[in-house]
Design goal:
The chain has one helix at 4-61. The chain is mostly helical. It is rod-shaped. The relative contact order is 0.06.
């Protein structure tokens, strides 16, 4: 049989673990969404750079 003090510590630890899990889940969501935004921004920059290069090459050819 577990004494009440020990049970309280275990319950407290379980609550902390749940909070940590929730925090990690939220943090992961933030990281994933900002990472996706970063990648979409990066691909736009690459496309713009490619367009500029194509423009420069085509004007040289003209």
């Amino acid at each position: 049989m577990i004494c009440s003090g020990h049970a309280n510590v275990m319950q407290g630890a379980a609550r902390v673990a749940q909070r940590v899990q929730l925090f990690l889940t939220i943090t992961e969501d933030i990281v994933v969404s900002s990472h996706k935004q970063y990648h979409s921004g990066l691909s736009k920059q690459i496309n713009i750079t490619a367009d500029c290069l194509i423009d420069k090459v085509s004007t040289l050819n003209c």
